Amino acid sequence: MIHSSFLSQSVGTAFLACLLIAGCTAPASAATSAWATSDGGRMRLIVLPPAPDGTRQAGLQIEPKSEWFTYWREPGDAGIPPQITAEPGSSVTLSALNFPVPKRVDLGKIRDIGYDSPVVFPFTLSNANREAHNPLKVTAFIGLCHNICIPFQAELSIDLSHEETTNVTEAQLIDKAKAHLPATPTDDFFVSSFHMAEDLSSLDVNVRLPEGSKDEPRILLTGPEGYLFTEYQTISNKGAHRSLRIALPKMPRNYSVSGKTWHILIAAGNKRAMEAPLAFATSTSIVKP
Fold it and tell me: Which InterPro entries match (predicted)?
């Protein structure tokens, strides 16, 4: 069975060579920044009160307008993966953004992986309490796409000097986003082995799917930066055990997988999704725990 092809091919021709800069005119409450808006939607920063260890759970909340979408972490040939950075000189450190399981988005001739409804990307802030006498400022950079793709950059600011209480709604937004993150491998859902073709034209993956997975799984395979692969054939189907051959129609010139780590996200039945790193050694491929 053939599934969706290598993505983002059609976005590049429509990409605008412009950059919309939006910023908050004043710090908002301790829980959220003001909304920054663009033609394709809006975004803001959510920061919860500190945990006992001083870290803060946070989230970048994005609301695309109707028929618009924003990207997953790997946009493929074209597009903008969401990014967030602290103000230069700030003592605050930001963890990497975490991404809920995305969907395939079809908008006209554009086929991509991302989100066409409100989404929150959770992350963790460290050393944020040192900013208590100054607004916490971060810069977010995303793409919002419809028939065209608009880069959208905004400075998001929150005043942490006020007394804080946890806003239930905002805490729920972050908890819901975390609940939709792909899980790590489990005893009933994991990659057992994989093998790269010598000519790098395909990757064979043996996977154990959870019970109740009646439909073919959805695959998102990321390897070299800027490359996303989703098209595969099922070469063996033995109950919960599947052997999949993922097509790699385009690879960087003179690319070697030796020592590289790729990642595979598999969405299966019962609304379960799992992501696993695939580590290529010089001689034997290893599935990291």
Answer: DsbDN
